[in-house]
Specification:
single chain, mainly alpha, globular
């Protein structure tokens, strides 16, 4: 029985849905990679022309990595070095956590800015992929921009959570898994 006071607000639900959408799109890219690789394997045996598959698979690999970053980050699936954070008092841990998140926000914001600018330039100059699939290169680059922007939003979200004294979701999710006896990410 959940009271109204414990229900997440509209913004929280919207952000969580946005991160989940990024994760779902990343998963769909991985599924598409699987399907294309199986299809290409069969096609090679049947002497079909499948060399274009390598181009599409490489774009899907990049898309799956970038689209899934925010979701993975929030769920504690990123590699984090916490040796120092685990040894300091709670107040120092919060300060260090905020500093780490601010550095990450700056770095990822820089990445997102240049990804967007680079993609816009590809669009303006009408760059065409020079491999087997001649499409405007900005099309596969858009997943990089969207993924980087989602990641910026997720890191800003976590920074605000920690600044307000809350526990970051990536810590809470790992603690929840450990409480269930799931240490699979430790392998």
């Amino acid at each position: 029985m959940t009271s109204h006071a414990h229900r997440p607000g509209l913004l929280r639900r919207g952000l969580d849905a946005l991160y989940a959408l990024g994760g779902a799109l990343a998963a769909l890219c991985v599924l598409a990679i699987f399907i294309l690789m199986v299809w290409a394997s069969i096609g090679r045996e049947l002497d079909w022309r499948v060399s274009w598959v390598n181009d599409v698979v490489s774009w899907l690999c990049a898309a799956s990595a970038f689209l899934g970053m925010a979701y993975s980050f929030r769920n504690g699936d990123f590699v984090r070095v916490t040796l120092l954070l685990e040894k300091v008092p709670a107040k120092a841990r919060q300060t260090l956590e905020v500093l780490c998140l601010l550095v990450a926000l700056l770095a990822i914001g820089y990445l997102a800015y240049w990804a967007a600018r680079f993609t816009w330039e590809s669009y303006e100059f009408q760059d065409i992929a020079g491999n087997m699939v001649p499409i405007p290169i900005w099309i596969p680059q858009v997943s990089f921009v969207i993924g980087a922007m989602l990641f910026v939003i997720a890191v800003a979200d976590e920074t605000l959570t920690v600044l307000r004294g809350g526990k970051p979701s990536y810590v809470a999710r790992v603690e929840e898994r450990h409480a269930r006896g799931d240490f699979s990410e430790e392998l």
